Amino acid sequence: MFTAEQLESVKTRKELVALAKEEGINLKKSLKRAKYEEELKLLQTELALLQEYIEEKQLRVAIIFEGRDAAGKGGSIKRFVEHLNPKISGVVALSKPTDIERGQWYFQRYIEVLPNRGQIKFFDRSWYNRAVVEPVMGFCTEKQYEIFMRQLPNFEHMLYEDGIHVIKFWFDISKEEQQKRFDARLGNPLKEWKFSPVDLKGQELWDKFTEYKELMFTETHTSFSPWIIVETNDKEEARLESLRYVLSRFKYPGKGKTKVDLKTNPNVVYRYFRKNKKFDL
């Protein structure tokens, strides 16, 4: 990447190309990254305005991030919360249930961490663990799964009726991209902590995950709580487009003051209503 000093030293495009060649820098990639960083900053500024509105109007907002392993959920959440006030925002990433929690109603521990008035919460996985991961990995019984799926639409309708704004994202990538990201994690000591035994089964059980995911969409995509698909192998694009979608859902004072594009790309972000042609959803 170029340093700030290097960029300040060039005056023409020709000089920039020559500098890139001299430093062995991929100019196209560097310019794309610079554009991403600028857009991200502007969208995060808009998100800060939205947070002020949520606090002022005492709204309750829950944004759920689901998707295949290594789909970019955590990285996107990081960009959402990076510059928000931690007193009125937060990340929910529950660990596996304790013995006591296993004896409770399945939704109970999630109810306890729902947003209070004036808060926005980001769920790094959610109650939807029981819709896909748990049955695929054998972490729940068939009866537990069936009861959960019957209760889920009613549970989310109660949240809707009580005024909680729930946005459900499904981040999707191709099978090849998932393997590529797994390999990158295993080859990087700083990222190996992200790799779990469940990840090891991601490729092996790809088709089974797909089967349960499709059942989940069919049973839980509703008018009051729709699924929003974020479909791209580009991590940066997924982050920007999911930010844009959330901002598009609210009318807040000062909206658009940054002049950043707030329209989502319909080929990347869309409601679950059509068969995906790019990846095997």
TrEMBL record:
Coiled-coil annotated spans: 26-60
Keyword set includes Aminoacyl-tRNA synthetase: no
Keyword Coiled coil: yes
SUPFAM superfamilies, alphabetized: P-loop containing nucleoside triphosphate hydrolases
EC number of this enzyme: 2.7.4.-
Keywords from the named record: Coiled coil, Kinase, Transferase
Record-annotated membrane-spanning stretches: none
Gene3D superfamilies: P-loop containing nucleotide triphosphate hydrolases
Top-level EC class as recorded in UniProt: transferase
Domain Polyphosphate kinase-2-related: 31-254
Pfam families per the UniProt record, alphabetical: PPK2
InterPro entries according to UniProt: P-loop_NTPase, Polyphosphate_phosphotransfera, PPK2-related, PPK2_PA0141
GO terms, molecular function: polyphosphate kinase activity
Domain of life (superkingdom): Bacteria
Subunit structure, interactors included: Homotetramer.
Record NCBIfam families: PPK2_P_aer
Family as reported in the entry's similarity comment: Belongs to the polyphosphate kinase 2 (PPK2) family. Class I subfamily.
Function text: Uses inorganic polyphosphate (polyP) as a donor to convert GDP to GTP or ADP to ATP.
Protein name (Swiss-Prot/TrEMBL): ADP/GDP-polyphosphate phosphotransferase
Gene name as annotated: ppk2
